[in-house]
Automatic annotation (TrEMBL), chain A:
GO molecular function, one term: ribonucleoprotein complex binding
Organism classification: Eukaryota, Fungi, Dikarya, Basidiomycota, Agaricomycotina
UniProt name for this protein: Ribosome biogenesis protein ERB1
Biased composition (Basic and acidic residues): 14-36
Name of the gene encoding the protein in the UniProt record: ERB1
Annotated organism of origin: Guyanagaster necrorhizus
Stretches for region Disordered: 1-97, 283-309
Function per UniProt: Component of the NOP7 complex, which is required for maturation of the 25S and 5.8S ribosomal RNAs and formation of the 60S ribosome.
UniProtKB/TrEMBL annotation, chain B:
Residues covered by the NLE domain: 11-71
Role of this protein: Component of the NOP7 complex, which is required for maturation of the 25S and 5.8S ribosomal RNAs and formation of the 60S ribosome.
SUPFAM superfamilies hit by this protein: WD40 repeat-like
Gene name of this polypeptide: YTM1
Lineage, top ranks: Eukaryota, Fungi, Dikarya, Basidiomycota, Agaricomycotina
GO cellular component: nucleolus; nucleoplasm; preribosome, large subunit precursor
GO biological process, one term: maturation of LSU-rRNA from tricistronic rRNA transcript (SSU-rRNA, 5.8S rRNA, LSU-rRNA)
rRNA processing is among the record's keywords: yes
Protein name: Ribosome biogenesis protein YTM1
Organism name: Guyanagaster necrorhizus
HAMAP family per UniProt: WDR12
Length: 742, 433
């Protein structure tokens, strides 16, 4: 055989081996899937190196194998598998014959008979369901379909006893395995059994693989030396030019050094000794375990040598012994020993320890988070009331209306006289400082409101009774004031009547029959208008507004004294009007309905603002002399302070009274206001208002004045301040009018 | 004396006095348990007085009410410290002399006239009672409440007296009252027209030549007491009452008098205007504007203003030496102001439980005053002891206000809601009463 022939043969053999490998693998396919892939890879590599006579592991095996086989054939004592290989003719033997046509020797393989014996791959598996999970057929009588689409019925399977009998009877059952596809035991083939054996013996499972095959010398030995280089291609240029990629890498490092990311001469971190704080607490999100409560320290009586007085008497000892364990105040009896060495062993030690442990683990320990806030620090810093003097502090005198409610009162503009009206229709004029009644008027029905005219050049007051407002001149006036007042209220020539006839009639008492005991001027409000609840003067003293209790037009009338004319400012108004007020400086008009305060501009006839105090039923209202602040009191005990510049919501809500608020009044000069309530108290507040828009008003509660009796659920009904002095007058349901002095 | 003391701690004491019963300056060792009574006996025995005189003792401006030892313990004075004790003649407990009910409130009382009490009442009448509680005369001279009366000390030859009264009807009036059971009558001499507001007080000087009126309009009027022959002020007519007035003209009408001067400085109501006792050129006034003002009458200017803070004054007296003013204010104090200092400094205050409406000084003593308050209690004070009243008594039953007091010749006239009450108090009360 020439070298080339040899070469060719050698080259062909692996191909054959490949084929056999493939067959082999296919045969084992059932059990091992991974090997197939490995085989295919091996075949791929083989394909790739077909030009180069690489090292083929199988190259020489054939010969050796055949040698071995020959040996095996010779002695077939064991190696059943080998022999079975022979029997099965897995490896078809090729014959080399001389071709008739070419005259060259050629290898001829035996004909492949297309029978079941020929190839395992052609075995006709009756079940053609393919590679599907067979548990799909678990509940069905068949296990799949054959090539004709017929059901392959599940073969009968015996029980465990049958199996056992089978193993006894049929030796081949040891070498059979359950075939899922057919759902029955199939005898293993000899190759499979061989693989199992090899695996069991920790050998390479592939029977073909020889780990000890001899080295094939390709390039050594005589005539095999390679003199010429394998490739005559010139050296590529890249072998001589510096590497671009190296350069990029170096530049990256250089850049890093320039930017300081790499410090070249950085001292190596010295191998410091690392300490691990194994005893310190790891920082966890858990709260640290709570310390156990300390046991009580022993007292004198627990001493081994306590003073005599600690020793129990005989009776005490008996008592203690007769008591139940739980009832005992202490669980020991003091005992006295003259020396420490005489003290016996502590018999309760274990029990005590045990109880301590019980205490520790049975008692839940909870850390109670206690806000450590000084309650004093939550109270806003307010100046002390004593620094805000003067304000009323004591009851100086009392004026009594007998058997009636002192419902209304008013202080003259000079602060010297008071008029007070009661429910019997009596109006009294009395001195502020002495409390002496000077004059008394009797009207036909109960007095709803009295109010002095704020003008100082004239002096008179108005009294509101049922459907009527009376104008009354007080006595003891200087002639000039008296003349002016008389001229104002009973002018010689009446002003021309208004174009639109009003429902309100103005009547002057005839000069012949008039005396100072009678009202000089009477304004008759429309019928069914009821009692005027409130009379309020404009600061100039020309206009007076009245609010009546029962009327359709809201009961609000504005009367002009000089023109003797009355008009209702509102054609219709939502809600029933409780109170009205004139703004002290601007032509604004405050109207309080049950829940809202509306501010109207009277000259432009516009609604300017609606205040929402959040009070269920407004009872009282007053405006600060500066006109920028309004206080509103309600029957639901709340007092709201409104800063008109700020908002239509209250700046502050005070709730100090325990009953409904009845009346509020700002002092015209001092920074004070007072509130009267049905709980019989009057509260005095300091209310300083700053011109600076940035500073909030300062409201300081100063004093609670108690002095009115609560009668039929009514307490103090009205409060009024004295002009020029921090003196307060309050009328109550007990008929008393108290004067409170600073 | 010291040796005679019983066993127990004793206090070294030096006695001083301004009474006519001085002890020699000597240190006494007084037992700490001794009280006022013992001390008084000690002084009486030491001076061997024939008629025992009761004394009160002032220790550091405080009337000794307890024993000496207790006082020392209360005030933290060591017992070894020498105490200087001033003794004063004791004020006997006041005795009620008479109760003279009025129809209306009495605003002002005067005990000036020997043998009579004059009252000004809210019904506009001046009444005179003699000491036998008989109403001597009642002259309804004002149409409005009288706020103040005073007796003008002019020597009338026929035994009549000139009484000035100030009223709420904006006028003051000068009335000649002749007292005596049968001959009692009154004659309205002049009406004083200045004020446009009710008058608060009227006062005359010691010689009776001038009057001062104080009014609610902040003015103080200075008047002489000469009765003019004709109206000095034209009658201000009230337009629609012209006819009525004409009718009144027919009767003998008092002359309308104009003020000699008007003292304007107070900003609010003037509650009291007074002449100085000694100096006829000086007047004092106090008002609701919390000021006490000193006026030079000749030049009609305010020479000095003492401004207290927030003390509207209701009444004022000037002590006899003219150095201090005592003013009652609505903050429930009677305060002592030094008129010489000119500035308010460390004023002494006599605290009351109710508004003090009136004060009066004793005619005999420099240091004793009486004050009436709205709680109906009249309190007597010694100016050297501000802490407690020397004594007090309640006029009338129930809560009735005291509006005016006067203290002359050991008699305290108390006017107020219940009328007039006369109490005997003071050292010379026994002689006159």
């Amino acid at each position: 055989m020439t070298a080339t022939e040899e070469h060719r043969r050698k080259r062909k053999q692996p191909v054959k081996d490949d084929a056999t490998d493939g067959v082999f693998h296919k045969a084992v396919d059932m059990v091992m899937h991974s090997d197939e892939e490995g085989g295919s890879i091996a075949s791929d590599t083989d394909d790739a190196v077909d030009e180069f006579p690489g090292i083929d592991v199988h190259s020489d095996t054939d010969e050796d194998d055949s040698d071995f086989e020959d040996d095996d054939e010779a002695d077939e004592a064991e190696e059943v598998l080998q022999s079975s290989d022979e029997d099965n003719h897995i490896f078809p033997k090729a014959k080399t014959i001389i071709s008739d046509i070419t005259g060259q020797p050629k290898r001829v393989y035996p004909e492949i008979e297309p029978e079941y014996d020929s190839d395992s791959s052609t075995e006709d598996a009756p079940n053609r369901v393919g590679n599907v999970p067979m548990h799909w057929y678990d509940d069905l009588p068949h296990v799949g379909y054959d090539i004709d689409g017929k059901k392959v019925l599940r073969p009968a399977r015996g029980d465990e006893l049958d199996k056992f009998l089978l193993t006894v009877e049929d030796l081949s059952s040891w070498t059979s395995a359950f075939d899922k596809n057919t759902q029955m035991d199939k005898p293993l083939t000899t190759e499979e059994l061989d693989i199992i054996r090899r695996l069991h013996a920790n050998e390479v499972p592939d029977a073909e693989y020889d780990p000890y095959e001899p080295m094939t010398e390709w390039f050594t030995g005589k005539g095999k030396e390679e003199i010429m280089p394998l490739s005559a291609a010139p050296e590529p240029k890249r072998r001589w030019i510096p590497s671009k990629w190296e350069k990029q890498k170096v530049m990256k490092i250089v850049r890093a050094i320039r930017q300081g990311r790499i410090v070249p001469s950085k001292p190596k971190a010295t191998a410091q000794q690392q300490f691990y704080p194994i005893w310190s607490e790891a920082s966890t999100s858990h709260a640290p375990p709570l310390p156990a409560p300390k046991p009580k320290l022993p007292t004198n009586s627990e001493s081994y040598n306590p003073p005599e007085e600690y020793l129990p008497t005989e009776a005490e000892r008996k008592d203690w012994e007769s008591m139940d364990f739980e009832d005992r105040e202490r669980d020991y009896l003091p005992q006295k020993y003259s020396a420490l060495r005489l003290v016996p062993g502590y018999d309760r030690f274990i029990k005590e320890r045990f109880n301590r442990q019980l205490d520790l683990y049975l008692a839940p320990r909870v850390q109670r988070v206690k806000l450590n806030i000084d309650p004093q620090s939550l109270i806003p810093k307010l100046p002390s009331p004593s620094s805000l003097r003067p304000f009323p502090i004591y009851k100086s005198l009392t004026f009594l209306h007998n058997d009636s409610l002192a419902r209304c009162l008013s202080v003259s503009p000079d602060g010297a006289w008071v008029i007070s009206g009661d429910d019997n229709g009596v109006v009294c004029l009395w001195e502020v400082t002495v409390g002496r009644e000077v004059k008394r008027w009797k009207f036909s029905s109960k007095v709803g409101a009295v109010e002095w005219c704020p003008r100082t050049d004239v002096s008179y007051f108005v009294v509101g009774i049922e459907e009527t407002i009376h104008f009354v001149i007080p006595p003891n006036l200087s002639p000039s004031v008296y003349n002016l007042t008389y001229k104002l209220l009973a002018p010689a020539t009446l002003p021309s009547p208004p174009d639109v006839p009003s429902a309100v009639k103005w009547t002057t008492a005839p000069s012949s029959s008039w005396s100072i005991n009678l009202p000089i001027l009477t304004v008759q409000l429309p019928q069914t208008s009821g009692l005027p609840k409130q009379l309020v003067w404009h600061r100039r003293g020309d206009y007076i507004a009245s609010v009546s209790s029962g009327s359709n037009l809201g009961g609000v009338w504005i009367h002009q004294v000089t023109r003797r004319h009355s008009q209702a400012p509102f054609k219709k108004i939502r809600g029933s009007v409780q109170l009205v007020l004139f703004h002290p400086l601007k032509p604004h008009f405050f109207v309080a309905t049950q829940q809202y305060i509306r501010i109207y501009n009277l000259s432009e006839q516009l609604l300017l603002k609606t205040l929402v105090p959040g009070i269920k039923w407004i009872s009282s209202m007053d405006v600060h002399p500066s006109g920028d602040h309004v206080i509103i009191g309600g029957y639901d005990r709340k007092l709201c302070w409104f800063d008109l510049e700020l908002s239509d919501k209250p700046y502050k809500v005070l709730r100090y009274h325990t009953r409904a608020i009845r009346s509020l009044h700002f002092h015209p000069a001092y920074p004070l206001f007072a509130s009267a309530s049905d709980d019989g108290t009057i509260q005095i507040f300091h209310a300083r208002v700053y011109n600076d828009l940035m500073t909030d008003p300062l409201i300081v509660p100063l004093k609670i004045l108690r002095g009115h009796q609560v009668k039929d659920g009514l307490g103090a009904l009205q409060v009024k301040w004295c002009n020029h002095h921090p003196w307060l007058l309050s009328g109550g349901a007990d008929g008393a009018i108290n004067m409170w002095c600073s | 004396m010291a040796s005679s003391s019983s066993s127990g701690p004793s206090v070294p004491v030096v006695f001083t006095t301004q009474t006519p019963y001085p002890l020699p300056t000597q240190k006494f060792m007084i037992p700490a348990t001794w009280r006022r009574f013992h001390l008084s006996q000690l002084i009486n025995k030491a001076l061997s007085l024939s008629i025992p005189v009761p004394f009160d003792f002032l220790v550091k401006k405080e009337v000794l009410a307890s024993s000496l030892g207790e006082w020392c313990a209360e005030n933290g004075v060591a017992e070894e410290e020498t105490l200087e004790i001033e003794y004063i003649e004791s004020l006997l407990p006041p005795e009620k002399m008479s109760d003279l009910p009025h129809e209306d409130w009495v605003s002002s009382v005067s005990c000036e006239l020997q043998g009579y009490f004059l009252t000004g009442s809210y019904d506009g009448a001046v009444r005179a009672f003699d000491y036998s509680q008989k109403l001597d005369t009642a002259c309804p001279i004002h149409s409005a409440p009288i706020s103040s009366i005073c007796v003008v000390p002019v020597n009338e030859d026929d035994g009549s007296h000139l009484v000035a009264s100030a009223s709420h009807d904006l006028t003051a009036q000068l009335t000649r009252i002749t007292l005596g059971a049968e001959t009692s009558r009154s004659q309205l001499l002049a009406t004083l027209h200045l004020h446009t507001s009710p008058l608060a007080s009227i006062a005359s000087n010691s010689t009776g030549s001038h009057l001062l009126t104080a009014s609610w309009d902040g003015l103080v009027g200075l008047w002489d007491t000469k009765i003019p022959t004709s109206d000095e002020v034209p009658e201000e007519t009230i337009d629609h009452e012209r006819k009525k007035r004409r009718k009144l003209d027919a009767t003998a009408k008092p002359k309308r008098k104009a003020p000699q001067a008007v003292l304007k400085s107070h900003t609010l109501r003037v509650s009291r205007a007074l002449f100085s006792d000694n100096d006829s050129k000086t007047a004092y006034s106090c008002g609701f504007d919390s000021t006490v003002r000193i006026w030079d009458i000749e030049n009609e200017i305010c020479t000095q203003t003492i401004t207290a803070s927030e003390k509207p004054f209701l009444d004022m007296i000037i002590t006899s030496d003219g150095n201090t003013a005592l003013a009652a204010s609505t903050d429930r104090t009677v305060s002592l102001y030094d008129l010489r200092a000119g500035v308010v400094s460390n004023t002494l205050s006599f605290l009351h439980p109710a508004t003090p409406s009136c004060v009066a000084k004793a005619s005999s003593s420099l240091h004793q005053i009486v004050s009436g308050a709205y709680d109906g209690v009249v309190r007597m004070w010694d100016l050297r002891s501000t802490k407690d009243a020397l004594t007090s008594f309640k006029a009338w039953e129930g809560k009735k206000k005291v509006l005016g007091v006067d203290w002359k010749r050991g008699l305290v006239g108390v006017g107020g809601e219940g009328g007039l009450e006369v109490w005997k108090a003071g050292e010379d009360g026994s002689k006159s009463g």
